Amino acid sequence: MINKKTWAGWTGGMLAMSLALSACGGGNGGGDASPSGAASPSSSASASATAPEVKHDPVTIKLISWSDSYTELYKKFNEKYPWITVEQVPVNGKPIMEIIASLEAAGTPADLTWIDQDLIAFDQNGLVEDLTPYIEKDPTFQDVTLPQGFFDTMSYKGKKLAVPFVDVPMWILVNKDLMAKHGVEMPSNDWTYDDFRDIAKKLTDPDAGEFGLTTQPEFQMRLLSTKAIADGHAANLQYMNEDLTQSVLNTPDVMNDVRWLSDFVWKDGSMQSDAAAKASGDVTREFINGKTGFAIGGDWVLPNLKANAKFDWDVLPFPRGKVSQPGYSIYGPLSLLSGSKHKEEAFLWISFQFSKEAQKWKIDQGANASVVDAELTAYYDQSPMWQGKNIAAVKMAKENAKIQPGVTVPAWSEYNWNNIMNDIVFGGADINKIIPETEKWNKRTLEVREQLK
After folding, report:
1. Which residues lie in coiled coils (predicted)?
2. How many CB atoms lie within 10 A of CB 169?
3. DSSP helix/strand/coil, 279
């Protein structure tokens, strides 16, 4: 752990220092100083009254992102720093590098950007700042405790190229009404993958159009590679080895894991294939339809579930495997752009993400707290988002999470694991196609890694 203290704002710290110096200067006369040498209340009040107000020119910082759900947090930031306004620049399906280039060409460069993938390419093109010097002098980062390895997936060649602006956890969504209908009790939080499969079978009634699992790629994208870690078959998500240099997707144990999930479709019948789902009107593709027992969910599904679900739902942590019970989490990378004309102000937005105010707001949206803090952990019990739900599972998902790798893995965008797995699990493709595809990528990533030296 990186041991730190409590959060203080950039300008708040500067103002506090100014007040402290003024107070000390006033106490040198001796008449209004306390015996300990500290300024008396009257002298402090006088210093506060006479301290000059810091003037700032208005600044608008442009943030490239694909989500418009942060408006409330922009307002909270503006309340803290009234001279700074955050303007979201929507992605609208365009490549982020293209947006950065067009804004610079127009003379209105962006200041911050979310990163979708391949953070190395942004660094190679000189688009992002190394955040290390900013972090080292920033009161916020010096005053909080961050999880072990917090920057690991966003650092490259000793540079911190991004910070996680949000920690998106995953859970198993549970249709409690469907479970009750089939006489199945809610499992405990230490349930196993065998429990998961058995319950999925019990919830399946094709005649009623009911199935154990929602037909969604997230089961192979999120759950399957987590199971590989839980059973000791892989060190990292997406079937990566310990140092993220090679995929172990083509090893016998992992391929057996793939067969295990495929059996839900082709043997158990508790999850529909793509073709079967389409033939039945795609009802089982959406958990909110109430026809499936389990789905993979993250913060993005919660507003719709809370507003529109017609059944009682809850969450469970990912199941326990043979050696551990890991969860799955995504860090959303946020980078400071080299072309920014307002780098100090833009970094204040990055810094603000780790204040307790922003962290609590994110918990209220269903995200994890990124800061290790007892008050934030206790806040899960208070957050309106989780009232009446399995809060212990939410906390477990945070504590047990493995972080999705990728943005600093060479040639990551060429790693075709996702399409292969969809073809096999939901389309019935030959599982052996995994072997040559994995061998090809393992060779390719080493080649690119060597080129980047």
Report:
1. none
2. 24
3. helix
CA distance 270 to 215: 10
Helix residue ranges per DSSP H, 292-431: 302-308, 343-352, 356-364, 374-379, 391-399, 417-427
Cβ atoms within 10 A of the Cβ of 250, count? 18
pLDDT value of residue 117: 76
pLDDT of 294: 98
Task: Give me the pLDDT at residue 427, please.
Answer: 98
What is the third-level CATH fold of 59-167+330-387?
A: D-Maltodextrin-Binding Protein; domain 2 (3.40.190)
Q: Is the dihedral of CA 207, 208, 211, 212 positive or negative?
A: negative
- The H or E element that residue 101 is part of is helix 96-105
**Distance separating alpha carbons of residues 189 and 55, to the nearest angstrom:** 53
Domain boundaries, the chain: 59-167+330-387, 171-329+404-451
Mean pLDDT of 29-38: 34
Question: Residues 104-113, buried b or exposed e (16+ Cβ, 10 A)?
Answer: eeeeebbbbb
Evaluate if residue 23 carries a pLDDT over 50: no
Bridging pattern class, strands 292-297 and 84-90: unpaired
Q: Residue 423 and residue 13: Cα distance in Å, rounded? A: 55
Work out whether the CA dihedral 91, 92, 96, 98 comes out positive or negative.
Answer: negative
Closest by CA position to 293, among listed 393, 204, 187, 389: 204
- pLDDT single digits (tens) 70-128: 999 999 999 999 999 999 999 998 999 999 999 999 999 999 999 987 899 999 999 99
Type and span of the H or E element at 112: strand 112-114
CATH 3.40.190.10 correct for 171-329+404-451: yes
Instruction: For 371-391, write each residue's pLDDT tens digit.
Output: 999 999 999 999 999 999 999
Span 154-185, pLDDT tens digits: 999 999 999 999 999 999 999 999 999 999 99
**Which pair of tokens denotes residue 182?**
């089939």
Angstrom distance (rounded) from CA 345 to CA 86? 10
Check for a shared fold between 59-167+330-387 and 171-329+404-451: yes
